[in-house]
Design goal:
By secondary structure, the protein is an alpha+beta fold. The protein has 5 helices and 9 strands, in the order αββββββββαααβα. Helices cover 43% and strands 28% of the residues. The strands form 3 sheets. Strands 6, 7, 8 and 9 form a 4-stranded antiparallel β-sheet that branches. It has a 3-stranded antiparallel β-sheet with strand order 3-2-5, with helices on one face.
């Protein structure tokens, strides 16, 4: 009886080790990249949850990525408008790892991805905001404010910059804060008063 118990225990250990060596799980919140001898193709990407077969290392290695949405908020940055009037914007994005192979080959880690997003957001702000006048951001007439249009164009610009080359999907982009420096504020209010005075004359 004792020998049977030992045999069963050994078999269980062998089965568990076999499962560990030859199978891996991808959860609903994950995506994975199955590399063979350090190489991977688009067919190596796994985005559906479930159990998958693999050969033990060093033949194959599995790299997993958290595919859930993340929120990244860029630092406040000064960006010139079309009329060279600077504004200070705080932009945030909601993003996720959409293509594991491109992500692994280009950035590899979330930290490097966020550094990349920070740089790309700055470029996007300069590209898009530089095409709009200050009055499109701050205006006594609400109908002339174009924040939603600007955010939409920034989102399109940023998506094109990161999806194909970095495997990152940008779900949402928004301007969280919009500020102007004290000197600019004084100048803007002076212009608004002068404009009102002209209209009342």
């Amino acid at each position: 009886m004792k020998n049977i118990a030992i045999t069963i225990f050994v078999l269980l250990v062998v089965i568990i080790l076999g499962l560990y060596l030859f199978l891996f799980q991808v959860r609903e919140t994950e995506s994975a990249l199955l590399m063979t001898f350090g190489e991977a193709t688009s067919e190596s990407e796994i985005t559906d949850p479930g159990w998958y077969f693999k050969w033990p290392a060093p033949i194959q290695r599995v790299y997993k990525f958290d595919s859930r949405m993340r929120v990244f908020e860029a630092e406040l940055g000064e960006t010139p408008t079309k009329g060279v009037v600077p504004i200070i914007v705080n932009t945030y994005v909601v993003w996720r790892i959409a293509e594991p192979l491109e992500f692994f080959n280009s950035v590899k880690t979330v930290k490097k991805a966020e550094d990349l997003l920070r740089s790309q957001i700055n470029d996007t702000q300069n590209n898009v905001i530089g095409q709009y006048n200050f009055s499109d951001f701050v205006n006594s007439d609400k109908n002339k404010v174009k924040i939603e249009e600007i955010q939409s164009r920034m989102l399109t610009d940023l998506r094109l910059a990161v999806r194909d080359d970095y495997g990152i999907e940008i779900k949402t982009l928004g301007i969280k804060q919009l500020k102007v420096s004290q000197d600019v504020s004084k100048d803007v209010f002076a212009r608004m008063r002068a404009e009102r005075n002209r209209k009342t004359e």
